[in-house]
Design goal:
The chain is of the alpha/beta class. Helix content is 58%, strand content 9%. Strand 5, helix 9 and strand 6 (243-247) form a beta-alpha-beta unit.
């Protein structure tokens, strides 16, 4: 995510991060490079120019040149201004209606239908709501089918009317159905086209007037960069929407849409799509995104994701097992599953400060645990609970059954043994011993 921009901003700020002399001249040079990095990321020219002017004004106003750590102060100013540019505060979603009606708008191919499902799943699992998905794209049967598939996948009912070509009527009937059947959120997926046209705009504004939604959200593909910003402006002029959803952000190495869309349409980014799975949805936090763009990671989001998967009862059981030296491969497998549920490996690593830069160019596969899981699944129940029984012939059998080598089986056993010892030390509070163990593992 934003890999190219992060790298260019890092290079631009490198001079000021060092301990060399800081002058008004090299502050200006640095900001020229920052502006170039933003323009390369497909940020609107006026937005990029205004941004660097504000940073320069604040930098010179705060005596960056005479401070003991000018580089750090400069990075903080850039981070604060980036945060402000992307919206400043985190914006929530309005769920005040009974039911709350959310109207989804956007062009065809922006990921609108998929994101309607992701949003329904988010509201169902994180906000304990009972959502109803509504298929109002009457022109594309595939869109209605797609929404039904998505609804089935996440266990959410989908409302559609076969043969009815009036989206306003379908939307109104769906809201009546929701009231009668105890649904407290209605998410209406509307038709999109390949480009902004009068017919589509007239139709969506007619739906908007008829149902008076609590939230009108504009869904846009972040990878289209400046085009995304222009489309958002066209939709906002007609709909005056409440917020933006940026999809496909995991594949966006530039970041132009995320950075400049708020300043152009003056509407907050509320959610982002970070992958294909139904749980690949995040609330947009401008401050955390600024941290990630500047290579500082996003530890808060990482901890939040870990807590979502954290089971207190399971943790207590695991603690007892570690204390009694009963931590086995089944427990290890369970820990792997929890990590996998947190999201894509590349995204998780991007949240660790400095890790993205250190692992630049390395392709991190989401199947990184695949061979480990295959090895464990090839073990007998006895071998999983008592790894000490694994002799040469058993290892050969496991390697053959998992499609790996004996060397890989031995490597996993060694890592498992070291991890078990480390967990035991953490329980006993042996900080010094743990550091020694970690040094041996390097």
């Amino acid at each position: 995510m934003f890999e190219n921009l992060s790298e260019k901003l890092d290079k631009a700020l490198h001079v000021l991060k060092g301990h060399g002399s800081i002058t008004e001249v090299n502050v200006a040079e640095t900001l020229r490079e920052v502006r170039r990095a933003l323009l390369d990321a497909d940020v609107n020219f006026k937005t990029a120019k205004d941004f660097t002017n504000r940073v320069k004004e604040k930098a010179l106003g705060q005596d960056v040149l005479t401070t003991l750590q000018p580089g750090q102060l400069m990075v903080k100013i850039v981070k604060d201004e980036l945060t402000e540019l992307m919206g400043g505060d985190t914006e929530g979603i309005n769920l005040s209606g009974k039911p709350s009606v959310i109207l989804m708008s956007g062009l065809q191919g922006s990921g609108k239908t998929t994101f309607s499902g992701k949003l329904a799943n988010f509201l169902k699992t994180k906000k304990t709501r009972k959502p109803l998905l509504v298929a109002c794209d009457v022109y594309r049967p595939a869109a209605i089918n797609q929404l039904h598939v998505v609804g089935e996948q996440i266990g959410v009912e989908v409302y559609s009317e076969e043969g009815n070509k009036n989206p306003v009527e379908i939307a109104q009937n769906a809201i009546a159905h929701a009231k009668e059947n105890g649904f407290n959120v209605v998410i209406i997926d509307t038709a999109g086209r390949l480009a902004v046209d009068k017919e589509m705009m007239d139709e969506i504004s007619e739906i908007h007037r008829a149902i008076e939604p609590q939230e009108t959200l504009f869904v846009v593909d972040s990878m289209t960069g400046q085009d995304a910003v222009n489309t958002a402006k066209a939709f906002n002029d007609i709909l005056n929407f409440d917020g933006i959803i940026l999809t496909k952000l995991d594949g966006d190495t530039r970041g132009g849409a995320a950075i400049s869309i708020k300043s152009v349409v003056n509407k907050p980014i509320k959610f982002i799509g970070t992958g294909e799975k139904m749980d690949a949805i995040d609330v947009f936090h401008p401050s955390r995104m600024a941290d990630r763009i500047l290579g500082m990671g996003d530890v808060v989001s990482l901890v939040e994701r870990a807590q979502e998967q954290f089971d207190e009862q399971e943790a207590r059981k695991l603690q007892k097992k570690i204390a009694k030296n009963q931590f086995g491969f089944d427990d290890f497998l369970n820990q792997i599953q929890q990590v996998k549920r947190m999201g894509s490996m590349k995204d998780l690593i991007g949240m660790i400060p400095g890790a993205g830069k250190a692992l630049k160019g390395i392709d991190i596969d989401d199947d990184a645990f695949k061979h480990i899981e295959a090895i464990i699944h090839s073990m007998t129940p006895e071998e999983r609970t008592t790894p000490s029984v694994l002799n040469g012939s058993r290892k050969r059998r496991i390697a053959k059954g998992s499609g790996t080598s004996v060397r890989e089986v031995n490597q996993l056993l060694k890592q498992f043994d070291q991890m078990s010892k480390m967990m035991k030390m953490m329980q006993g509070g042996g900080g010094r011993k743990m550091m020694q163990m970690m040094n041996k593992m390097k």
